[in-house]
Design goal:
The complex is a heterotrimer of chains A (110), B (113) and C (247). Chain B has 4 helices and no strands. Chain B is mainly α and 113 residues long. Chain B starts with 8 loop residues before the first helix and ends with a helix. Chain C has 247 residues and is α+β, with helices and mostly antiparallel strands. Chain C is elongated. Classes of the chains: A mainly alpha (110), B mainly alpha (113), C alpha+beta (247). Chain A binds chain B through residues 11, 14-15, 17-18, 21-22, 24-25, 28-30, 32-33, 35-39, 41-42, 59, 62, 66, 69-70, 73, 92, 95-96, 99-100, 102-103, 106-107, 110, and chain B through 18, 21-22, 24-25, 28-29, 31-33, 35-40, 42, 45-46, 49-50, 52-53, 65, 68-69, 72, 75-76, 79, 82-83, 104, 107-108, 111-112.
Chain lengths: 110, 113, 247
């Protein structure tokens, strides 16, 4: 993908994430009251289509956003370029997607 | 070390955005990994969550909330800068983003006490 | 006749000037007498005329019109002709280096070839749509597009913004604030006929998407232009063009 394509993907993923992050911030501030425990988290998320799709979308957009962002930083600061740079970005994206997907699966479906 | 040509608020806004982005990218794998163990071993997650209530750990978590909030609001400023009609108040908007982030982080800290 | 500056014997400026060439160099200290209305360019000239005739530096107009005397003064890019010694002196010292992000030729002189090449690479050249046989096109100075073009037009190519930009430092392909600012001026010029090609030129490798909106350009431009704003305009135009299928 060209530089402009990556730029646009970065901005679109950011726009999608703004409401997701605001929701997540709200949930954190709400849930931290009286301490966190596993049962409380799971009672909110288990089998919930709403939380499942919200956090599913969050994981996908965050993976894209982080991969493109770290790609820029690796190019500018670590002087990676060419194939190495793209392999690095794809690994970051897929790694986050796999770990995040597993987390959402566990908390919502398992 | 901030070099002389960088000594201006919007460079600082850039630095905060980049460093918070790196911080979040490093934190996310750990966050996902721990949540991934939730169902496999609820007890270990509970042990972890109780550990997270220690005051010092709570302060560190507040730092993470700040990273997320400051990246979000700082990013919102950048989206507005790039896609909305130009405003000359960029420094004010950056300060506003930082204050909002601090507000969310402190709300998290105080609510968790 | 205007009054000559009074030089007090005790006031001495230590000019730390970078001496060397492309293969390397180091700072050399020159102690010079300070005077009240002295500019940094005056100080450099004093060194060359009285101490070190071999010192190389550039200047032409001495009044902030040509932009050729730009150097790093205490780590910031400035027009030395428009910078008073008394304003920037720190601990009786001023540190002078050639402009950042450009290859050095000798001492305070750097090679601006890349800088100008990028101006052309960004299609910074006006593409006429009329011939000399036709009457001059009337353009209202009040029209929105003309005002947008005017906002960014006063650039004199001094490379201060280029030296102030971290994105240029970290990405040698990046076209830089001056070239993109010029491109944006032409994108707003209704007489110009090269807009689609120019938009492709400024969105390719090293294009406007490499800008991190740090505003180093805007905070250092001696003409108080805001290339970061122009670049944001290009980004917006580029995204609009993507959705219209034009890029």
């Amino acid at each position: 993908m060209s530089g402009l394509g990556l730029y646009l993907a970065q901005r679109i993923s950011a726009m999608v994430m703004i409401p997701l992050v605001l929701t997540h911030l709200g949930v954190m501030i709400y849930a931290v009251r009286g301490g966190l425990d596993t049962a409380e988290i799971l009672s909110r998320t288990q089998g919930s289509l709403f939380w499942g799709s919200l956090y599913g979308l969050f994981v996908i957009t965050a993976s894209i956003h982080a991969a493109i962002g770290l790609r820029v930083i690796a190019y500018e600061w670590l002087k990676l370029s060419g194939l190495g740079l793209n392999v690095f970005a794809v690994l970051v994206g897929l790694g986050l997607l796999a770990l995040g997907g597993q987390a959402v699966y566990t908390v919502v479906l398992a | 070390m901030i070099r002389p040509h960088q000594k201006q608020p919007l460079w600082l806004a850039f630095a905060v955005h980049r460093m918070s982005g790196i911080g979040l990218a490093l934190f996310l794998p750990a966050h996902f990994y721990i949540l991934g163990t939730a169902m496999k071993d609820p007890q270990s997650l509970d042990t972890f969550l109780h550990w997270s209530e220690l005051p010092l750990v709570r302060v560190a978590e507040t730092g993470l909330v700040f990273l997320l909030a400051v990246h979000c609001f700082g990013g919102l400023r950048l989206l507005a800068l790039e896609f909305l009609p130009w405003t000359p108040y960029q420094k004010t908007l950056a300060a506003l983003a930082a204050s909002l982030a601090l507000f969310f982080a402190v709300s998290f800290l105080l609510n968790g006490i | 006749m205007s009054q000559l500056p009074v030089i007090k014997r005790d006031d001495v400026v230590n000019m730390r000037i970078w001496r060397g060439d492309a293969s390397g160099g180091s700072f050399v200290d020159y102690k010079i007498p300070m005077s009240e209305t002295q500019t940094v360019l005056d100080a450099v000239t004093w060194v060359q005329r009285n101490v070190e005739p071999g010192l190389s530096y550039r200047f032409a107009c001495r009044v902030g019109m040509c932009g050729s005397c730009a150097m790093m003064v205490n780590g910031r890019p400035r027009w030395t002709c428009r910078t008073h010694v008394s304003k920037v002196i720190k601990n009786h010292q001023i540190k002078l280096e050639p402009l950042r992000n450009l290859p050095v030729i000798k001492d305070l002189v750097c090679d601006l070839s890349d800088f100008f090449a990028k101006w052309l690479k960004a299609n910074g050249r006006f593409v006429p749509t009329e011939t000399r046989e036709r009457p001059v096109k009337k353009i209202s100075p009040l029209s929105k597009q003309r005002q947008a073009a005017n906002t960014a037009i006063e650039c004199i190519n001094c490379a201060i913004c280029y030296a102030a930009c971290d994105a240029v430092e970290q990405n040698p392909n990046y076209l830089g604030p001056a070239a993109l600012n010029r491109a944006w001026t032409l994108m707003n010029d209704v007489r110009d006929g090269g807009k689609p090609e120019r938009l492709r030129a400024v969105t390719g490798d090293g294009g406007c998407q490499c800008c991190h909106s740090q505003h180093g350009c805007a905070s250092h431009c001696p003409n108080e232009l805001n290339p970061a704003r122009s670049i944001a305009g290009l980004k917006q135009a580029a995204v609009t063009a993507i959705f219209k299928g034009e890029v």
